[in-house]
Model the fold of this input.
Amino acid sequence: MKQLDNVLRDSAIHLVLSLLVLGVILFALIGKILGPLNRISENMAIVAQGDLTRDFHVQGNDEVARLGHSFNTMLHNFRQLMGQTCKVARQLIDSSKSLNMLWWLKMSRHFFELV
Done:
């Protein structure tokens, strides 16, 4: 009977120690996974507020790293689109100024023809 109690006690101790070791390992793995995801999430929140200067520093080739690469590609495409939009806007402003000047020239000629 005493041997059975010792075996049960030793088994319970081994079980508790195994669960503690497993808990530490899971905690470390979850931190390793959630850390980069939290950084991506923080960067995405900053970008959502309009700051397109952020980049995600990617290491590795796992799913989280691929997500980071996709994030950087998306930002690069946004920056290019913003640059092209600004260029077109400047061209429209220049064209508008030219058209406005032509309209005033035409109106002034018309005015002098009337006088």
Q: What stands out?
A: The mean pLDDT is 88. The first helix runs from residue 2 to 48.
